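Q: Sequence in, structure out?
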Amino acid sequence: MPPTPRPLRKLGFLTIGLFDEADPRQGHESTLDLIVLGEQLGFDSAWLRHRHLQYGISSPIAVLAAASQRTGRIHLGTAVTPLGWENPLRLAEDLATVDVLSGGRMNAGFSVGPPTHYDRVRGALYPDTGEHEDFSPRRAERLLDLVRGEPASDFAGTEGIEVYSRRVQPHSPGLAARLWYGAGSLRSARWAGEHGLNLLTSSVVKAEESEDFAEIQLAQIRAFRAHHPDGERARVSQGLVVIPTDSATPEQRARYEAYALARTPRTLAPQGPARMVFAPDLVGTSAEIAERLRAHAGYREVDEVAFALPFTFAREDYVQILTDIATRLGPALGWQPATGRG
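A: Exactly. Output:
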């Protein structure tokens, strides 16, 4: 199989950060430990998912603020923040704060749409304004404007001893270039390109012109770049569940294979009224996974990845998987570990 025309340049990983309700600190600390390990292994980035009203990290930005003080080089991201749960102005303040604390390492991934199970959470989330909330891309445009330094107020100056700014403070000028959109359709991919964002490709996509996951992802990447000011240079990061087994024990290999097998049926045809297509999990040796990736139409279009860790594994499994990715799979794809700071 010929090598990908875009050699792998940036290697990241993504985790949900599960925890036990009886001891949530342990789960959050474990996630922070994985980010530290990722930096030690040379990963370029670590990403956290949002999980509201579940037993996964509900406040990734707070966790990443902590991670920024335990690391010095690895980039820190959200993949993705659902904006339906957020006030764009407050989110812009939090993102800029973590970006300043991390020395310019924050990467904010987001998406739009109503909150999951909106009818069940609306009374707690937007009890007085639910019918007026706008969950369209306009909500994202508000965030973009605020991060980029557009006015949030029509007043700047001094009142007594208080000094006010028209724009969000702190303002972090480089943050706008590290905003990512999580797209799952051609329309959202085009929108991200038109607005000059970076693109996080999803492991769940909408069947539109094809029912083949790789072909759908390829079409979305090309649509994004066709509408982006930077064209072919526009940044795209691919996210798939990748489980190398090189150093896994026989018991781990069996569990990984059973995990992937149980999730395979949903990958065989579009699911639900929205006709969503799920990517297959990739389990095997690093050499086997590298070969499958090089044959993947979506992967062949990118030079950045953020491989997703499976949701329900133990910490020792994640350590083994991350270590194999960094020491075997990444190099097999032409990647070199990051060193130093920045």
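The mean pLDDT is 96.
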